[in-house]
Amino acid sequence: MDNRFRTDNHHREKKYITNMSNNIDSNHTIESSPFPVFVSGQQIGLLGGPLYTTYKVLGAIFLAKQRAGKAVYWLETNDADFNEINHIDYLDSEGQLQTLTWDIDSKGYSMGFIEIDDKLVEILETFFSSIRQTEFTPSLKEMVLNCYTKGRTLGDASVMLAKELFPTFDLQFFTPTEPQFRQFSQTILRNEAENTPDDNQCNLFCMVGKQRKTLFKKNGKFVLRDGSTINLEDHTLVPNVKTRSVCQDAYFHTDTYIAGPGEILYLKDLGNYYDFHHVKQANVQPRMSISIIEPKVKRLLKKTGFTLQDVLDTPLEELLKRALKENTDFDYSETLNNCKNITEGYLENLRSLKFDEETIKRLRKTLHREVTEACGKIRAQEKEKNRQSLADTRYLSDNLRPYGKPQERVFNIIYYMNLFGGTGFIQKIYEAYDFNLSTLEV
Which residues contact 8 (CB under 8 A, 6 or more apart)? Predict the structure, then answer.
């Protein structure tokens, strides 16, 4: 545990909290909203990010409407894990799972500062040309390419697209680069840095140009990983995972934060940080988590005999084996095992006829090879006869469990908007919104 949270530091901590509270109230805090504020957010990602980002934002909108409050969408532009968001996964017009990767040197920049280049524009063009063409494709393509123009930052493009995706909702779009928030958060973050125990990493980052740098406290000074000394007053400080929520809730006086499973785990352990900074922690509402069930998926579930849970819980290769076995009564592993047992029985009989061990060994090797090849040929023939059944099974898995992950963590909202209603598709999700919903048929 951080030393400053220990009992022997109680009086210093209490004095610090009082001073910091006075600083915030007198200098930087925004006025407390007369309405409850509901916040959700996610690091920026291509084409609006994974589906669950949309579910989180709609959760904030849903609660705000229920309780006559204000919804805020925090687009996190400070994050620097480029490889986490530099790709687009989708099913092409042939139903094949595809990945397009924006493979550039991000230079360690915070993602909001990365500029869109010809490569990304080309990737977006490829995406729209290879998905199934519908009446919504041209307008969606125009909308996206108007946002992602060469030279524009990824942060600006993401905000522009978000406004296009949620135009009819009462929703505030927010990035942590907004000057008022930057000024406000410096008070919390400088106090956090100054009260970091010596020889520890600070729970914040230091901006050096467009790069977000890890900060350490050593011998009473602040240094970067390379050992260079930093004067806090000369740099903008930005939160890390432990202080982002504290800054957020202090700034917005957040009533409720709509969170994913991973966020819920770390938020519950931040009580000491909230107490230390004299900030009231927001309530936490788990986001909606659904699988979108297309008409084709519904038909194929009925055709193959698999249940939705079968597909969601079973790895693709295992699902394909089950499909082959159920359609042909042919189990490759079981057949090969039986053949090997029969072979061993045959060899044992030869041994009883005084065949020498060298001959037995040579025969075993030859027979096992022949049996394996024969079983392989039978399996190939059965696969060919059941090619459509296996293709249907693969499509189900790729659609509902792409790359072995939940659909909501892989596909983006634009992909589904193209298939099921264009810009009106998000409204359809909202109309069905229920935090306990697990599937949505479209």
Answer: none
Domains of the chain, start order: 1-289+406-442 (3.40.50), 294-405 (no CATH)
- Please tell me the number of Cα atoms within 13 Å of 165 on its side-chain side: 30
Determine what percent of the chain falls in helix, strand and coil, rounding each to the nearest 5: 55, 15, 30
Each residue of 269-325: pLDDT tens digit? 999 999 999 999 999 999 999 999 999 999 999 999 999 999 999 999 999 999 888
Give me the residues of the chain with pLDDT under 70, please: 1, 3, 5-33, 329-330, 385
The reported pTM is 0.83
Q: Could you tell me if 282 and 384 are in contact, meaning their C-beta atoms sit under 8 angstroms apart?
A: no
425 in Cβ contact with 140 (< 8 Å): no
Burial 6-42 (b: 16+ CB within 10 A, else e): eeebeeebeebbeebeeebeeebeeeeeeebbbbbbb
Task: State the pLDDT at residue 26.
Answer: 30
Torsion, CA 31, CA 36, CA 41, CA 47, rounded to 10: -100
The beta-strand segments (E) located in 240-286 are 254-259, 283-286
User: What backbone torsions phi and psi does residue 95 show, to the nearest 5 degrees?
Assistant: 80, 15
Torsion angles phi and psi, residue 13, rounded to 5: -65, -45
H or E segment to which residue 323 belongs:
helix 316-328
